[in-house]
Every structure is written in structure tokens, then in C-alpha cells.
Q: What sequence folds into this?
């Protein structure tokens, strides 16, 4: 075996072990000197990224089938097989979907770490910050590579503890402790119920390996009630980790209180939850699909409904937020709804003729959206951090005029905002197009809701852009652009977004199709090198950009023919905003962010009053929502 | 937290030795008898907590504790990496090799008079991992107790 | 505000669901129990001894594979050593979290807000 082969074979273990080693050694390094710690951390993330890139290339170019099974503690070339091909040790399975998620997590972690270098400079306790950051990365990667249910729970736990600790990092704010406690209680309850479900599976079948369990679940002539209940628990717990409504209550609190780079990484942690959800439905319950078909379809409908709730409640709650990071946290929830919706539609028609007609396209859209979301949400959280860094406040009503000096940040913000709103030709549009077209065939009403949510998303980002970058300057804010490493972190994510936007077909073919093949076991393609096929039509970003360029040239030509040199005089020289004088009593007249959509929220007050009331901040009510949704999902799984 | 009376301090000094010994026994014999690194580490950490109550929480070397904790885990991962040389990550490369470091074989259960007899230096990496986890648990739990002691008894919270 | 009775009702429903599962699983141990497995390539089911993994642990933990007299430790530190690494990491993360979240209280009194450098 050549060195390269053995490296590829060992890579999954290295990807978890190296971040752990980096995390364990960071406190020692920082006792020696802080610059040594910095070098050590940058070296660590570079090595992890390199290993992940090589592994991802190898797996994804191989079409996405399980490329390596890594058995921890095994002898070379021996998997310790027992009767029925089970493996009596913990094992990692790397296929297209895990490699896809792993790539995404390393890209975002890389950007966050580079950004942190100057963003976190003003805080003490940085050695612990970087330790926890690497623990989070290791937990994310472990969650997506593992092929063992208990091991999955262990990574779930590490991720929860690390997120909680990092949420409480800014100890000068009392709110951060509140967010951390909420997140901790929420994820601990979810984790304990998850452990219970895993224990039930172990007690029933005597094993923890996911492949073995999938065979055992499919081995009955019809599904056991117990297995259906376990699936209900798994769906609820992982939907909670992903932050879907109505189990999202702790998510905005934790997202908005954590430091910005950590929030970007928390998005990927929530997507590890999504991954676990898809994995448990498609792999754990999908081995003998003739038997489990009805249950998988029910789970698909549950996921679709959770997705619609998340999309709609997330975006409507985001519209009324005044805190920039809370607003973005609600958008994270709303975008998670798209992924749940896309893949949920795939689940709901799995193993039927409709799956080949539109279900697979919906799944491609949902999974493509995972990567897009991690990128643009990561970028948006980083820009929010930059805005807060300079503005010194998170209140949108108190900001303004930052665009003049922070024009680079403004550009990155616009890239992220256009992408999240699904404006062509950005990457968010490509994935949403796949979702719209396929979901419309599945159920036209749901498709219409998905498009409406996109509109509202754009509206709320217009509000942020207007409040933060435009308008008169607030005198108390710091001047100038943010430090270079912060810009570098944003530039990394922004450039990946641009590549994804221009070449959606290529990205779908190389990244998403292997992932969908690995999940469903059904070969198929959605994209060619330049064009993306949605099942009905096709989409090519370069053609659209060409048309834009032509229109721009024509417009400039027409403009150049116009009459030059008119300067307004007298009353015409005064700056006016929609017919009103821009200054009243010497003060600039502006509409603040929270007043921008006043009419909209007023008209929908019947919807807003109970919804905002539900986000009461009382932890025991939040736990009630969790328990109630768990009960309802379990009942639906059994009785429908 | 202030130190307590001489009676408590003397008794703690007397009690600490057997507690430490018992915990160390649980850790070091983890591969032979019930117990292991987590359990023994927790026992020693209770002794440390007793020390904290008796002698106060001011004069602990938290840096050293933190370094010891990291060292324990680092050694755990390093043994995992050493396993890659002979097999896969965390491969038990010492077990049954006859090497002087925990490499002795134990007599199998079949046809042996005492099924539970085993030499101390058996089990390969299991014993080593036990020790490192023990080190990590002792220093980690002590660090938590000391930190919380400092936090709870340092008078007012700074605001 | 939600009625406490409703909260209690849903809690009881959850507990009854979990209890239903706990009572429904097979008997503990069950030496001769079999699990029927689905073979994806042939589409047929075959039987596997349910305790196959446990038997493997009991039989080979004292053999050359781990040569550990205490089978429980052999499982914890060898067969499932990676989980143990994870659990130790949970403790490490918790310790780091405690140190992070109350670090301002451990600084000297001269720095009123220890969380941020002044």
C-alpha cells in the first residue's frame, strides 16, 4: 500500500484526532507564550484543512460511495468481523455526504479562526477560547464521520458543552450567561432523550453500529412500534440541534450572545444536527425500504412541516428584531427550514416514482443549501461582528452611516445578503431554485410559502443594510475599516460564495450529487459543468451575467448620449428624502430600523402578538415546547 | 475561603494519605479489578476537595493543574497516534507482546485453576490510558473545585 | 403563560412513551436471543445471535487481543477507547468552560470587568 493510500485510510481519524490534540495542547502553549499559541493554532487549522481537502477530493471524485471504514483500535487490515459482518469496535464511515459536511465545517472554521485573530484581541482567556473552538471543530467532524450511534452521542455532548462555554465567553454581559444556560439545559435534555433512544436500540438489537442496526431494523416483516418511536425521538432531537421551530427557542439567545466567529461555527454545528437527522432517516431506517417506507414517508412529512414552521416563523420574527445578531439568528432558523423542506420532500416521496421525478432534485437543493447557508450565514455573522466592532452597539436603531468608511465590509454584507435572499445570480438562488421547482410539484402551496419567505428575507436584510450602512453617521462610533485579518476571514467566505454563484452546476456535480447518491443510494446527476438542471428547466449563472453585462453597456451608452452639466440651483439643490426636508431643527431626519416595516407588523399584529408572546424567555416554557413537540412527533410516527 | 481550625487540618492530613492511596490503587489496578481512571480520579479529587475545605482555596497552583490536565489528555491522544504505527488509531500495540511495559500475557480462562489471576504488567495500553485519564480527572475535577471555591468565597462578585 | 396542567399532561405522555419502550425491549442478557438481519444484496433475512458483540468482548478481552483481566475496562479503554477519549474530552471542555465563564472573578479586584482587556 502506498503512502497516499494509507494516508487516505487514516485521514478520518486524523481529522478528529488533530483538532483534539491542538485543543489539548493550546493551554500549555499559551503558558509558554501567546505568540507560540497563535502559531500553533494557525498551524493546526492549516493541517486540518489540508487533510480534509485531500480526503474530500478523494471521496467526492469517487462518486460518493463509502470509501473507507476506519475501525478504531483495529489491527492493520483487519476489521474484526463477527457473524453477520458486524464490527465490534467504533468505526468511522466516510462517504460523499460526510465528506461534503466535513469540507463545509473546515472552510467555516478556517474563516472563523482567521477572523478571530484580531476580533477577539480585546478579550482575556483567549487560550480557552481557541481550545473550545478546536473542540467544537473536532466534535462537528466526529459527528459527521462516525458510524456508531453512541459515538454520535459523545460528539453531540462535546459540541453542546463547547457551545455553551463559548456562549458564556463574554462575561461582561449577563445576557451571555442566560443564553448559555438556556442552550445547555435545552441540549442536555435533548441529549438525555437521545441517549435513551440509543439505549433502546442497543437493548433491542445488541449493537451500536449504524449499518448493523439498519439491517436489524429492516429484518422484521413489519416495523416494530418501538423503532418508530425511536425514529420520532431521533428526528426531534436532531431537529432541535438544527434549530427548527418550535424547538428553536434557545437558539437565537445563544447565537446572538456568542462572539461572531463562534456564531458562524455554531451554524455548522447545527448543520451537523441536520446531517444526523438525514443520516438516521436514510441510513438507519433505509436499509430495507419496502418495510420501512411508510415510516420514512411519515418522517418526511414531519420534517417538511418542521421546515415550513422554521421558514415562516423564523423570517417573520426576524423582521421585527432590533438587535442585528438576533435578527441574523432568526434568519439562520428560517434558512434551516429550506434544508429541512428540501430533504423532507425527498424523504416523503422516497422509493416512489415521484422521487426520481422531483424528490431527488429537492434533496439536491436542500443539501446544496446546507453548504450555501454555512457560507453566507458565516459571512453575514462575521460582517455583523465587524459592524458591532466599529459601531459599539448591536441596536440597529442606533447605527448608521457605516458604509462610507467600511465599504469593504459593506460589499461583503451585500454579497451575503443577496445570497441569503436568493437573488440571482447568487448561490442561494441556485439552491432555492432547485427547492422551489421540486417543492412546487410536490405541493404548490408549500412552494409558494418558500418563495414568500425569500421575499421577506430580502426585506429584512434591506432593513439591516439601510440601518447600518446608510443614513447619517452616529458620532460615537469608531472610524475606519476593521483590521485586515477580519477582512481576510470575510474575504475567504465571500470568494467561495462568488465561485459557488458563478458555477452552480459544477459545484452541484462535484459536491452535492455524490452526497445525495451516498444518502439515498440512487445514482443521478443534477448539474453539468456550467448548467444546473432543475427537472423542468435549467439555470446558468454565466449566461445571466452576460445578459446583465450587455444591458449595462447599453444603459451606459444611452447615458453617455444625454445632456451633460445640469446642476440644481436654489430650492432644487436641497437634499430631499421622498419629498420631505432631510433636517428638522438641525437634526437629520431618518426612519430608524424598527420603524421601517411598522405598517407590515401592525397589519399582522394578530399573528405577531401570540408568536412574540411564545418567545417569552421563560426556560420552563421552552422546555414545554420541546417536550410537547417530542410527544407529538412520536405520536405521529406511531399512529400515522 | 479561609483555612479551618487546626483540628480539621490535622485530621485532613491524616485522612488524605489513605484516600490518595485508595484512589491510586483504583487507577493502577483498573485493568485487573473493578475501577479505572475515571473512578480512581474522582476518589483522589474528593481528597483534594477535603484539602480545599481544610486549608482554603487561595494557595493552589491552578496553572500546574491545568498543565497536568492537558498533559493527561495529550498523552491519551499520543498513545492513539502510536497505534497508527502498528495498526489503526488507538490500537492496543503493547498487549500480549511480552514487552516489559504492560506487555505480559494473561493465562486464558479455559482450563486454568484461577480464572482471575493476571500479572500487574498486562493489558498493554489499557493500563497506560487508565493512568492518563486518572491524571486528567484528578487535575480537572480539582481545578473545578478550586475555581468554584475561589469564586464562591472571594467575597463580592466584581461588577 | 401555559397552564401547568397542560405541561404536566405532556410530560406524563412523554414519560409513558419512554416507559412503553423501556418495557418493550428484550430481556436483559437473553443468551439465546436472535436478531433477524436484512441482507441488502440478496434481499433475504438471516439470523444473528443477539449477544454476538458481547460474547466477543467476554471471550477475547482476556486473550491476546487486549490481555486485560477486567473485561469492563477492556471495553471502556480498548474496544470503545475512542468513546472514552470523547468522554474525557467532555470533562476537559467542562473544566475549560468553568474557567472561561468565571474568569473575571478570579482576576484581582483592580480590574472591575475582567472579561475585557482595558
A:
Amino acid at each position: 500500500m502506498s503512502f497516499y493510500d494509507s494516508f487516505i485510510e487514516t485521514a478520518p481519524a486524523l481529522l478528529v484526532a488533530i483538532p483534539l490534540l491542538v485543543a489539548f495542547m493550546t493551554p500549555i502553549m499559551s503558558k509558554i507564550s501567546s505568540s507560540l499559541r497563535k502559531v500553533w493554532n494557525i498551524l493546526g487549522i492549516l493541517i486540518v484543512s489540508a487533510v480534509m481537502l485531500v480526503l474530500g477530493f478523494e471521496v467526492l471524485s469517487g462518486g460518493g460511495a463509502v470509501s473507507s471504514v476506519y475501525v478504531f483500535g483495529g489491527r492493520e487490515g483487519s476489521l474484526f468481523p463477527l457473524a453477520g459482518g458486524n464490527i465490534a469496535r467504533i468505526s468511522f464511515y466516510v462517504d460523499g455526504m460526510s465528506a461534503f459536511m466535513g469540507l463545509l465545517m473546515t472552510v467555516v472554521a478556517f474563516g472563523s479562526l482567521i477572523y478571530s485573530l484580531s476580533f477577539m484581541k480585546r478579550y482575556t482567556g483567549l487560550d480557552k477560547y481557541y481550545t473550545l473552538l478546536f473542540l467544537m471543530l473536532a466534535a462537528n467532524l466526529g459527528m459527521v464521520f462516525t458510524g456508531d450511534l453512541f459515538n454520535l452521542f459523545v460528539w453531540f455532548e462535546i459540541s453542546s458543552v463547547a457551545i455553551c462555554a463559548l456562549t458564556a465567553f463574554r462575561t461582561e454581559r449577563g445576557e451571555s450567561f442566560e443564553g448559555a444556560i438556556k442552550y445547555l439545559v435545552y441540549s442536555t435534555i435533548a441529549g438525555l432523550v437521545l441517549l435513551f433512544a440509543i439505549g433502546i436500540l442497543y437493548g433491542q438489537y445488541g449493537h451500536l453500529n449504524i449499518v448493523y442496526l439498519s439491517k436489524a431494523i429492516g429484518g422484521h416483516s413489519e416495523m416494530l412500534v418501538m423503532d418508530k418511536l425511536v425514529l420520532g425521538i431521533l428526528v426531534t432531537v436532531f431537529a432541535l440541534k438544527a434549530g427548527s421551530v418550535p424547538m428553536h427557542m434557545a437558539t437565537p439567545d445563544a447565537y446572538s450572545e456568542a462572539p461572531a466567529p463562534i456564531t458562524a461555527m455554531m451554524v455548522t454545528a447545527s448543520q451537523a444536527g441536520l446531517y444526523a437527522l438525514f443520516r438516521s432517516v436514510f441510513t438507519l431506517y433505509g436499509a430495507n425500504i419496502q418495510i420501512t417506507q411508510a415510516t420514512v414517508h411519515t418522517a418526511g412529512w414531519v420534517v417538511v412541516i418542521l421546515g415550513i414552521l422554521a421558514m415562516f416563523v423564523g423570517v417573520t420574527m426576524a423582521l421585527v428584531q432590533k438587535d442585528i445578531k438576533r435578527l441574523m439568528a432568526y434568519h439562520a432558523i428560517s434558512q434551516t427550514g429550506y434544508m429541512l423542506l428540501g430533504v423532507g420532500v425527498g424523504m416523503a416521496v422516497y422509493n416512489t416514482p415521484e422521487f426520481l421525478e422531483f424528490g431527488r432534485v429537492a434533496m439536491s437543493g436542500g443539501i446544496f443549501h446546507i453548504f450555501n447557508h454555512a457560507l453566507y450565514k458565516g459571512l453575514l455573522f462575521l460582517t455583523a461582528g465587524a459592524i458591532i466592532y466599529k459601531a459599539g452597539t448591536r441596536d440597529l436603531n442606533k447605527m448608521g452611516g457605516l458604509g462610507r468608511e467600511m465599504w469593504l465590509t459593506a460589499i461583503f454584507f451585500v454579497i451575503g445578503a443577496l445570497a441569503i435572499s436568493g437573488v440571482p445570480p447568487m448561490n442561494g438562488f441556485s439552491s432555492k431554485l432547485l427547492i422551489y421547482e421540486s417543492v412546487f410539484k410536490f405541493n404548490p402551496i408549500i412552494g409558494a410559502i418558500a418563495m414568500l419567505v425569500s421575499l421577506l428575507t430580502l426585506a429584512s436584510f434591506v432593513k439591516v443594510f439601510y440601518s447600518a450602512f446608510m443614513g447619517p453617521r452616529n458620532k460615537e462610533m469608531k472610524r475606519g475599516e476593521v483590521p485586515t485579518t477580519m477582512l481576510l476571514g470575510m474575504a475567504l467566505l465571500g470568494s467561495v460564495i462568488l465561485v459557488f454563484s458563478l458555477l452552480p452546476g459544477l459545484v452541484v456535480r462535484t459536491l452535492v450529487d455524490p452526497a445525495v447518491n451516498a444518502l439515498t443510494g440512487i445514482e443521478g446527476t443534477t448539474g453539468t459543468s456550467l448548467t444546473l438542471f432543475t427537472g423542468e428547466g435549467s439555470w446558468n449563472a454565466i449566461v445571466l451575467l452576460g445578459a446583465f453585462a450587455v444591458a449595462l453597456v447599453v444603459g451606459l451608452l444611452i447615458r453617455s448620449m444625454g445632456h451633460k452639466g445640469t446642476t440644481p440651483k436654489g430650492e432644487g439643490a436641497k437634499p430631499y428624502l421622498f419629498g420631505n426636508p432631510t433636517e428638522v431643527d438641525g437634526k437629520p431626519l431618518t426612519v430608524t430600523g424598527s420603524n421601517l416595516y411598522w405598517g407590515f407588523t401592525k397589519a399582522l399584529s394578530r399573528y405577531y402578538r401570540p408568536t412574540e408572546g411564545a418567545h417569552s424567555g421563560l426556560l420552563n416554557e421552552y422546555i414545554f415546547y420541546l417536550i410537547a413537540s417530542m410527544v407529538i412527533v412520536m405520536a405521529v410516527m406511531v399512529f400515522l | 475561603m479561609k483555612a479551618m481550625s487546626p483540628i480539621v487540618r490535622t485530621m485532613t492530613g491524616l485522612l488524605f494519605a489513605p484516600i490518595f492511596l485508595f484512589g491510586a490503587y483504583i487507577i493502577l489496578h483498573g485493568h485487573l479489578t473493578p475501577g479505572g481512571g475515571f473512578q480512581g480520579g474522582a476518589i483522589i479529587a474528593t481528597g483534594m476537595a477535603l484539602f480545599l475545605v481544610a486549608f482554603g482555596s487561595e494557595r493552589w497552583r491552578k496553572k500546574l493543574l491545568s498543565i497536568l490536565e492537558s498533559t493527561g489528555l495529550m498523552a491519551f491522544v499520543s498513545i492513539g497516534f502510536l497505534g497508527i504505527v502498528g495498526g489503526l488509531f488507538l490500537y492496543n500495540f503493547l498487549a500480549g507482546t511480552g514487552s516489559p511495559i504492560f506487555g505480559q500475557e494473561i493465562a486464558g480462562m479455559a482450563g486454568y485453576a484461577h480464572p482471575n489471576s493476571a500479572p500487574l504488567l498486562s493489558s498493554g495500553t489499557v493500563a497506560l490510558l487508565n493512568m492518563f485519564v486518572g491524571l486528567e480527572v484528578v487535575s480537572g475535577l480539582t481545578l473545578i473545585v478550586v475555581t468554584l471555591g475561589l469564586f464562591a468565597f472571594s467575597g463580592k462578585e466584581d461588577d | 403563560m401555559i397552564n401547568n396542567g397542560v405541561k404536566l399532561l405532556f410530560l406524563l405522555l412523554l414519560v409513558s412513551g419512554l416507559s412503553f419502550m423501556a418495557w418493550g425491549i428484550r430481556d436483559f442478557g437473553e443468551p439465546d436471543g436472535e436478531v433477524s438481519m436484512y441482507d441488502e444484496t440478496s434481499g433475504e433475512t438471516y439470523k444473528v445471535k443477539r449477544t454476538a458483540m458481547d460474547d466477543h468482548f467476554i471471550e477475547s478481552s482476556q486473550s491476546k487481543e487486549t490481555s486485560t483481566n477486567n473485561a469492563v475496562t477492556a471495553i471502556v479503554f480498548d474496544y470503545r477507547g475512542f468513546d472514552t477519549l470523547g468522554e474525557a474530552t467532555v470533562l476537559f471542555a467542562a473544566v475549560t468552560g468553568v474557567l472561561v465563564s468565571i474568569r473575571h472573578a478570579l482576576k484581582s479586584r483592580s480590574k472591575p470587568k475582567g472579561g475585557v482587556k482595558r
